[in-house]
Design goal:
Elements (H helix, E strand, L loop, with lengths): L9 H12 L3 H14 L4 E7 L5 E6 L6 H6 L27 H7 L2 E7 L6 E7 L2 E8 L4 E7 L6 H5 L4 H18 L4 E6 L2 E6 L4 H9 L7 E7 L4 E7 L11 E5 L2 E3 L2 H10 L12 E6 L5 E2 L10 E2 L2 H18 L39 H15 L31 H4 L5 E2 L2 E2 L1 H23 L11 H7 L4 H4 L4 E4 L3 E5 L3 E6 H18 L6 E10 L2 H16 L3 E4 L4 E7 L8 H10 L7 H4 L3 H13 L9 H11 L15 E5 H6 L2
Parallel strand pairs: 1-7, 11-13
Antiparallel strand pairs: 1-2, 2-6, 3-4, 3-6, 4-5, 7-8, 9-10, 10-13, 11-12, 14-15, 16-17, 18-19, 19-20, 20-24, 21-23, 22-23
Helix pairs in contact: 1-4, 2-6, 6-7, 6-16, 8-9, 15-19, 15-20, 17-19
Length: 666
């Protein structure tokens, strides 16, 4: 029997390791930037082409490498950070396994130029598929320049699993931000296809956060600091009223390593208990410093998860520190233990009998017009002109007359109350005039409400037989059916055999979706230009994503114009979309998980995703009250759609109950 176990060839072993270390271009960026940081660089430049699929270039001014080190660094388990086993428990650097460069070289074309500071000539090494093809002296600046081209060129199956450039660039920016946030003393630059996305000079932590996420974020965060024998906590936390629907601005760093820890995240969420809206998450940028011996960073291949010796204590310290910081900056109510006790009311004073409330006496017979009458009479007697003929004011003696007498002689007929204008004794009826004005305002309000509720009004019915069988043989008959709204969520109306309950939000979603789809198919998005362009501010990461989507957004009628300083101008919108819905819509598109699907495998194009997003943003929301006219209009337009049974996400729009089902309930 032949031996069954054999040693893997070096090339295959490196490709297997690459599958664990290099999952996408962002993995390469992470490893190379961390190597540059460990090399003591004060300036790191990252250049990309096609979201790293074509080129990833890292330029740093670190210590560089000699010729032998430059060749040896591409071997497996070659590292300068570990010399003995005990070093694993006191690591302060980034990567340490020594497999990153070997794995990258096994699946890409790699070029390295490096030179120490005190050396005249550097070393140029090129590698293809794990094999060194060039190793020659060269002239280059001090530090290192490493280029990774044609990632996964020899593993086409892995390359097919890469997603769109927008998604891959998003992951690269995430890794770039995680390193830049914790090393504010290093100058970072990031360019993609020749366009500079980030330019972050060395600064302090708060300015670095503002440089990455926009200047407005400085108004939304407050500092946090605490130092104990176990852990030192510094950083910033977001104010509760600026919490977001996603977790994009949540960062934990332990000993200058980015980590993910659900347990510590729960400590933060519990500190915000009662201050956040439903399904919203606070922003935080927290830096923890612990003894390296008290943590284990070697439990995950990407080193994004660590294990604490005493995580319960860190949980309690972190939670208490956040609550204290929010109380200190008056984010939440706190007890003031530093108040001056001498200003408090002594307890004995509460036993003193309170003084009686003074009584107020009112002279009910007082008549302010009596003095006026007296002065008037004196003035009349002293003058001998025509003023003697002036009418004298005589106050009424009966002050207790009923208030109904004020309206005596007015016509209170039903016609007048309905708003007709009539006169009594040749004078306009005040009551009927007011009622007419109120009625006019109500009619205008209903008209405005109907205008704001934009749903298609000219949609042909595809299958009239199904709709006719549901309501009646006469299509005009069902439009006259009475409808009513239930809990501001459902529309209820009757059918020929029972009743139907319609989900108003999903029905509006279906109507808006088919209207947008029809306009896209007819290539008539017809954007409405805004008189005053809408200025919106996003982070550089979000601006990058929106630039990638701008061409597609234009096809559905959303016209974007990008300015400097991470701002954009919305110059045109489709008729269905309101200005107040633009910001939530763009945020939803940025955070959309559907956009992460690879185009060749998803079967969903970006236009369809955008149509759904716009239709959802413009549809009715649960809790909106509708009058009878809008309810009827919604029902009519729903059953004029091609597929009224379900919304674009496949959820049912309405349910029916025939008379038999209703009778069974009794």
């Amino acid at each position: 029997m032949k031996n069954q176990i054999k040693l893997l060839p070096k090339k295959i072993a490196n490709q297997i390791a690459a599958g664990e270390v290099v999952q996408r271009p962002a993995s390469v960026v992470k490893e190379l930037i961390e190597n540059a940081v460990d090399a003591g660089a004060t300036k790191i430049i990252l250049n990309l082409k096609e979201a790293g699929k074509t080129l990833i270039q890292i330029i740093d001014n670190g210590m560089g490498m000699h010729e032998k080190d430059a060749a040896l660094c591409f071997e497996r388990h070659a590292t300068s950070k570990i010399k003995k086993a005990t070093d694993l428990f006191k690591l302060t650097t980034k990567g340490f396994r020594g497999e990153a460069l070997a794995s990258i070289a096994a699946i890409a074309h790699v070029s390295l130029k490096t030179k120490p500071h005190l050396q005249e000539l550097g070393t140029h090494i090129t590698i293809q598929g794990g094999e060194i093809t060039t190793n020659t002296p060269c002239t280059c600046p001090s530090g290192s320049i490493i280029e990774v081209k044609h990632l996964f060129f020899n593993v086409p199956a892995r390359r097919n699993f890469l997603k769109s450039n927008t998604v891959e660039l998003r992951h690269i920016i995430d890794e770039f931000q995680r390193v830049a946030l914790v090393h504010e003393n290093i100058h970072f630059q990031l360019s993609h296809n020749g366009n500079e996305l980030f330019h972050l000079p060395a600064t302090n932590k708060k300015k670095r956060i503002s440089g990455i996420f926009g200047t407005k974020i400085s108004e939304k965060i407050i500092p946090i600091t605490e130092q104990t024998e176990m852990v030192k906590i510094t950083g910033y936390i977001g104010k509760p009223n600026f919490a977001k629907k996603n977790r994009g601005e949540q960062f934990f760093f332990v000993n200058q390593r980015y980590i993910k820890n659900a347990y510590l995240n729960h400590a933060i969420q519990s500190a915000y208990e009662g201050l956040l809206k439903d399904k919203s998450h606070p922003s935080y940028f927290l830096y923890l410093e612990l003894d390296p011996k008290s943590i284990d960073v070697n439990i995950h291949p990407t080193k994004t998860e660590i294990k604490f010796d005493n995580d319960a204590s860190i949980y309690a310290i972190l939670r208490a520190t956040i609550k204290h910081s929010m109380g200190q900056f008056q984010i939440m109510p706190t007890l003031d233990f530093d108040r001056d006790a001498s200003l408090d009311l002594p307890y004995e004073y509460t036993r003193i009998q309170k003084s009686d409330t003074p009584k107020i006496e009112v002279n009910q017979n007082f008549n302010p017009f009596a003095m006026e009458q007296e002065r008037y009479e004196k003035s009349s007697n002293s003058s001998k002109n025509d003023f003697n003929k002036a009418p004298k004011y005589i106050p009424k003696k009966n002050n207790d007359a009923p208030w109904e007498a004020l309206y005596s002689g007015l016509n209170t007929s039903e016609n007048n109350l309905s708003g007709n204008f009539e006169t009594t004794n040749s004078s306009p009826n005040v009551m009927t005039f007011a009622s007419k004005a109120n009625r006019k305002e109500e009619e205008q309000g209903v008209k405005k409400e109907e205008e704001s509720f934009v749903i298609p009004s000219k949609m042909e019915i595809e299958d009239k037989e199904d709709v006719e069988s549901l309501f009646s043989k006469n299509m005009e008959a069902f439009t006259s059916f009475k409808v009513f709204q239930l809990h501001k969520k459902y529309i209820v109306t009757k059918t020929t055999s029972g009743l139907i309950i319609i989900h108003q939000k999903r029905a509006s979603y279906r109507i808006a979706y088919e209207l947008l789809e029809a306009k896209i198919q007819q290539q008539t998005p017809s954007p409405e230009p805004l008189l005053f362009p809408l200025a919106l501010e996003f982070s550089p990461n979000e601006i990058t994503i929106l630039k990638e989507l701008s061409t597609t957004l234009k096809q559905i009628g959303i016209i974007l114009n990008f300015d400097k300083d991470n701002t954009l101008q919305v110059e045109g919108l489709p008729a269905l979309l309101k200005e107040k819905d633009v910001m939530p819509l763009l945020q939803e598109l940025i955070e959309s998980e559907n956009l992460q699907l690879p185009k060749e495998h998803s079967g969903i194009n970006s236009i369809e995703i955008l149509i759904k997003s716009v239709a959802k943003a413009t549809s009715l929301k649960t809790g909106e009250a509708l009058n009878d006219s809008l309810q009827t209009k919604l029902v009519n337009n729903l059953f004029a759609c091609k597929n009224p049974q379900s919304c674009p996400e496949g959820k049912p729009v309405f349910i029916t109950f025939d008379q038999t089902q209703i009778d069974q309930k009794f």
